Structures are given as structure tokens and as C-alpha cells.
User: Fold dITP/XTP pyrophosphatase from Bradyrhizobium sacchari.
Amino acid sequence: GKLVIATHNPGKLAEMKELLAPYGIEAVSAGELGLDEPEETGNDFRSNAAIKAIAAARATGFPSFADDSGIVVDALDGAPGIYSARWAGPTKDFNAAMAQIERLLQERGATTPDKRRAHFVSALCVAWPDDHLEEVEARVDGTLAWPPRGTAGFGYDPMFLPDGHSRTFGEMESIEKHGLPPHGLGLSHRARAFVKLAEICLEPR
Ligand code: ITT
Assistant:
């Protein structure tokens, strides 16, 4: 059947399409459909994912899949968290957003890896037109590198060094960031959440 991917973020959309590829689902994005972006008024990742998925399902009459995600920095009391996109401003300048994180870390004397802990969170929600919902959430832990490394991925990827790896997400091919075979199963927050969602409501074919 048809599925709407309720995102306007091209980096996310590319990853969601790759994760959905083995399921033979025909997906079309909210951006391609020209859907309005609902205001993300929730206080957590889960509620913002639900807001986006429900809005797209109601607008289109098709099941709709949304991700709300962000980077949570321990030394910054969890910032930017659900405000990760907003920290990049209207011009979506993630180099500036990463530099801002680094400036705040330096101010707090966070120079050693143990003081530079962070994790990405992804909340995924599928909403059906009858308002049925499935929701999952997952995270990946790591440390923040400086200067940023690599040009792959999007957002804060060049700064994020996942535990157990020597390269940042910005230095990984998407298949390795996802943790798809032969690299294991589920590395990124989004891939891990997707694995949980697939167990609930997707059948490979
Ligand atoms: P949509 O709401 O249209 O999906 P958005 O970019 O506004 O797009 P979010 O509100 O969920 O989405 O913001 C998430 C931000 O967190 C995103 O813009 C990135 O900067 C960051 N982020 C999330 N996942 C990431 C990843 O895998 N790698 C790097 N940065 C990520």
C-alpha cells in the first residue's frame, strides 16, 4: 500500500527511504505532496512525531510515517534536544549550530570525552487515517568530536562519534550509519527505532 513520509528534511527522507526499501512499500514524502508543516508544539520527541504523522494521515487519507529526532548533550542539560532543528535557525546552518554546541562545551570546560557525552534520539510514529497510532523510540550513545569530521549524512552527524566506532556519522556511508548488514543491525537512533517499528507493523517482501 501507499505510505506518506511526513518529513520536509531531505537528509531524513533519504534515510527513511533506505530503511523502508526492503519492505516494498510505495512511499511519497510530505514535501513532494506539498503538505503544510504542522507546528511542533509537543514537549518531547514522541508527541512531536505523533503531531506530524497524524497531520499527514488526516490531510492525505494514507498511513503516514514521521520521525522526530535530535541530539541530547549531557553537559548542556539535554540541549538542544527537541530544539535541534531550531538551533540551526531559518537558514538551517548546522555548522553554526555545531559551533554553538562546541562554544558552550568549552565554556563548561568539557574538554575530555567523558564530559562530552551525547546521544541522538529518534521517535517514530505511524498514524493511520482512522487515528490508530504505533510509536517507538530509540537512541544511540556517543561523544562529541571537534572539529567536525566528514561530509556524509546531515545535521549534527560530523560531530557525533558513536560508541565503539572511530569515525563520526559524517564519515560513514549511510549503510554503516544505519548498521545494515554487513555492518550489523541497527546503529543509528533512527535505524534502531525503525527495527522496533518493523517488528510491530511491517512485513518484508
Ligand atoms: P521534519 O520535522 O520535517 O521531519 P526537521 O529537521 O524539522 O524535519 P526534527 O524537528 O525532528 O526534524 O529535527 C531533528 C533535527 O535533529 C534535525 O534537523 C537534525 O539537525 C538533528 N538530527 C536528527 N537526526 C539526526 C541524524 O541522524 N544525524 C544528524 N542530525 C540529526
